[in-house]
# Entry
Amino acid sequence: MYGKIIGTGSYVPQKVLTNDDLKQYVDTDDEWIRERTGIVCRHVMEDGETMKGMAVEASKRALQAAGVEAGELDMIIVSTVSSDLILPNTACYVQEQLNAKNAMCFDLNTACTGFMMAYNTVQTYINAGLIDTALIIGAEGLSRLVDWKDRGTCILFGDGAGAAVIHKDEQAVFDTVMHANGKGGSALSMEAGYALRDRAIDKAVSALSDKDRHLRTHIGMDGQEVFRFAVKNVPIIIKELLGKMEIKEQDIDLFLLHQANKRIIEGVIKRVGTTAEKVPMNLMEYGNTSSASIPILLDELVKQGSISEGDRIIMAGFGAGLTWAATYLEY
Ligand code: ACO
# Structure
């Protein structure tokens, strides 16, 4: 027995930064960003807004769409790399805000693969007979992690949250393929500020220059390396999942890919041998929102009526770790 998605919700901050707006921070231009990434603008939190607040808002919307009371939730998982909180975890904060007093709560971090890992985790708990109903959330406040002086990264990312309620269902079908390669970790990395504090036991670390400390506590990325990794491995993992399930690309109605870059998605479309109509994009509006990108896209498509009951969907994500995964679901 597995679960089906019975409600989705999302939330993005109102403040929009266009590509031209970024000129106040870095030497860039609209044409370059559109051509290399497809991104036109991104939503970013203003002072007073928080990643955990976005997670709560998206969750309320998903619960309302599902017609589920918070007290019915057995589990809440938040996927994030940009939590406002170290302790307690963001999922416990969401629980408290929703009054979901029966839910076990934890966060997970697999970067842009995270929403799938939250989904896969819930399916596994349902299959084990341990839970019936769960809320999963991908929420990111990446504008607080990027270096606004680094034009190689700050143009790419945005803030937002997406959520889904999953409930056990005899008709539910689930399968997945997941991979990680820690050896590629340096392609996309960031250290926690507290790990580099002065008076750390390791005096070599506390001897860091301000410049080094700044570099290590903001998102650092080898863009070309990440690009090559994604274009190569996402098609392979999708084909691996199709092969494992003994189905074909033609059997799939929609591919929901992590919204990182238009050229990565176009590369995947070509290598999988599918059509652009089956691979919707919204990165133009939101940029890369890491683990929030797939649930925000899912929620938009549901609200537009572009997903119908029974649609066969593959979600595929890739990101820091390096991690990558593809998951099959029937809506
Ligand atoms: N505006 C203008 N020029 C720029 C900018 C910018 N924002 N950024 C870089 N350039 C310049 C560079 O300095 C370089 O100039 P030079 O030729 O004079 O040296 C030139 O543009 C080309 O730079 P590249 O880095 O080679 O550009 P590339 O075509 O690789 O595009 C990009 C860069 C968009 C980052 C691309 O590599 C990419 O999208 N990679 C994938 C990144 C990604 O998706 N990361 C996240 C995935 S995982 C996750 O979601 C967490």
The first strand starts at residue 2 and ends at 11. The pocket of acetyl coenzyme *A is lined by residues 28, 32-33, 36-37, 111-112, 151-152, 155-156, 188, 221, 223-224, 226-227, 260-261, 288, 290, 319-320 (CB under 6 Å).
